[in-house]
Fold these 2 entries.
Entry 1:
Amino acid sequence: MEYKLNNFHYNVPEQDLLDDIKRVAAKLNKMALTSREYDEVGKYNSGTIHRRLGSWNKALEKAGLEAALSLNIPDKDLFENIERVWISLGRQPTHREMKPPLSKFSTYPYGRRFGTFRKGLIAFVEFIKSNDDNNLAMQNVESEKIPSEIIQDNEPVYRHKTKRLPSERLKVQVLMRDGNKCRLCGITVTGENIHFDHIHPWSKGGETVLENIQVLCETHNLAKGNLTYDS
Ligand SMILES: [Zn+2]
């Protein structure tokens, strides 16, 4: 008896791999195909395809199919992911930085959705600019002093029209305006070291709006906090 090793398909032309993906997709009547679905009826092995084409999604793209991964992510999730990455870095992410753990998604689904990652970023900037700031607690109410009869200890208390903590969207707006540099010393700040400071302190009636929030480094945020009792 002669034992015959399984064929590893090292030398299959790339086009044959792609043609077989198309054949399986047509057979299953699907525009998107998971590697598991392919392995059930495919002539080759999805591991081989992965190795030869770089990734399963790249193989699907080359075969002219939609990547299952990128089909069902809502725009909102794609944008909120950039929002998180932008705040972590303090600035616009590069192509290379869009990978776990920093980013939940690669640039791939952005390319699928918007044409290119850059076009995705352009759409993101529009999203940041156009969406209602969810910091607003109430509409069209000026910050006002609460009537003196309910003020205790002579400490003025303000009714705010915004929430104290800036929303993720507002943070990105501030970073887009200031860059990731402390407004007082110019040092570059990232991650935990980025502080979003109320220029006119919250405790003195300052609102959480773009014009009243600035980027500070930790040192200057602490220094200012000691001065104004506002963090
Ligand atoms: Zn500083």
Note: Residues 73-130 form one domain.
Entry 2:
Amino acid sequence: MSESRGRRSLESQRFVFVTGKGGAGKTTLTAALALALAARGKKVLVATSRAQHRLAELLGTPSFTTEIQPLRKNLWGVYLVPEVALREYGALVLKSQRLVTLLFDNRYAEGLFHGAPGLREWALLGKAWFHTTEKAADGAPRFDVVLFDAPATGHGVDMLRVPKVILSAAPPGRLRTDAERAYSAFQDPSFSAFVVVTLPEELPTNETLELVSVLDRELGLPVAEIVLNSALEPLFSDDEARALASFGKPHGESAVAQALSIAARRALAERVQAACVERLTQAGKPLRRIPRLAEGAASHEAALELSRHAL
Ligand SMILES: Nc1ncnc2c1ncn2[C@@H]1O[C@H](COP(=O)(O)OP(=O)(O)OP(=O)(O)O)[C@@H](O)[C@H]1O
Ligand SMILES: [Mg+2]
């Protein structure tokens, strides 16, 4: 259902960051993408910063834990928690379990460490990135793709600003070198893809255009596609929509009046969607439509159905 040619397939990316407005369908899309990629034989690690039962339900798997768990064929999951990520990072950098224990088990030191602005967010991003660099025993990447179900727009963008802040503020050292490596991997369009999920309504469209511009222009991050989730399959022509326009409010109590009102509201939603698509297209990014399922998207079956549209 892609509307642009020349798209770089998400299949060839090592890191996919799914972001967008709250409630737009990030978790739903993450699950649909994960199932589609795994079905094509990719080894997929799904990372989430929220202990979401919903994500596991959509994937048809047990809930995520802070340890990477195999979930089903070609699919692993991990719940990212700053404290755990920082502890792991500490262990990696300090290379001494005793030092890590000293640092993290001393309440005073912990308070200091956690007080550093952005460090918590960086810990999540840094851990997600670290898993893209891991190798299996045979030297092949441990995961072909790390899919990150990111926090909603505001927090998601703050999180992405963190490596930049570290680069400008941190003294030379391991933290800065890692931030540099991670940030240049995030900026590399052959390695990373940022996917912005939106809905066919005016406010989400405004927010999406803003977000795309921040990612693209301010942060230099590759927006691979905009995903219009809950897209309507148009039922009415322009003439039909015009004919229905005055029936939005039911004219009376009869079943016919109710039915006309439902049709009129649907026609209006389709026109709003068309206007949103036109505006979104101006962002110059590939636009993918994921259909609205009448029964909602709460089950594994729904995620499987949507996975047919995700790649
Ligand atoms: N394509 C779809 N068709 C029907 N319902 C959908 C679709 N996509 C998402 N939904 C419904 O929309 C709601 C929000 O979806 P989801 O949880 O994926 O959004 P989110 O962006 O991850 O939200 P949050 O910002 O809270 O993490 C859910 O109730 C889901 O069932
Ligand atoms: Mg979510």
Note: The CA atoms of residues 88 and 127 lie 9 Å apart.
